[in-house]
């Protein structure tokens, strides 16, 4: 049986068995920055997630000082899918944010077209490791500031704090919003196209 995808408005469009062009994007970032929320908001299908209820024991390991309302956490990865057409499918993987699960990241990065680094400007230091690993793997990425309603920071301040080069796109988003999350993915694809065109012109 063919799988199906939804436009989230009630209609369903079949995904052809011949869909043979799979593209992979990973959403990374610190603990509690909204990775699961973004995958959930933009996926055509009901996302697969590995969320577990947080316990008091976990409070001794995970810093929840800035996210007191968080009650569950990803313990492996999130997975969603967007059918771009009958032959091309975009697979989304959300990486767990806690330091104790960072060993999973290198495997998630394998075969990745590009990545979104989701950040909470109240806790920018939590995103340093994600950027470091992406640069280590040579994986192209963009940075998206998720809106948590904290003190505003200028783009220059965020770039300086994350040591971002000027060619890395930095945009604002609301991970709860499907249109906003789609815009993040579109920005990443446009960035990948720009990098590809620059490489071709340099040859």
From TrEMBL:
Species assigned in the record: Streptomyces chisholmiae
GTP-binding in keyword set: yes
Protein keywords: GTP-binding, Hydrolase, Nucleotide-binding
Record-linked Gene3D superfamilies: P-loop containing nucleotide triphosphate hydrolases (3.40.50.300)
Annotated Pfam families: ATP_bind_1 (PF03029)
Lineage start: Bacteria, Bacillati, Actinomycetota, Actinomycetes, Kitasatosporales
InterPro entries: Gliding_Motility_GTPase, Gpn, P-loop_NTPase
Family, as annotated: Belongs to the GPN-loop GTPase family.
UniProt-listed CDD domains: Ras_like_GTPase
Designated name of the protein: ATP/GTP-binding protein
Presence of keyword Hydrolase: yes
The organism's place on the tree of life at top rank: Bacteria
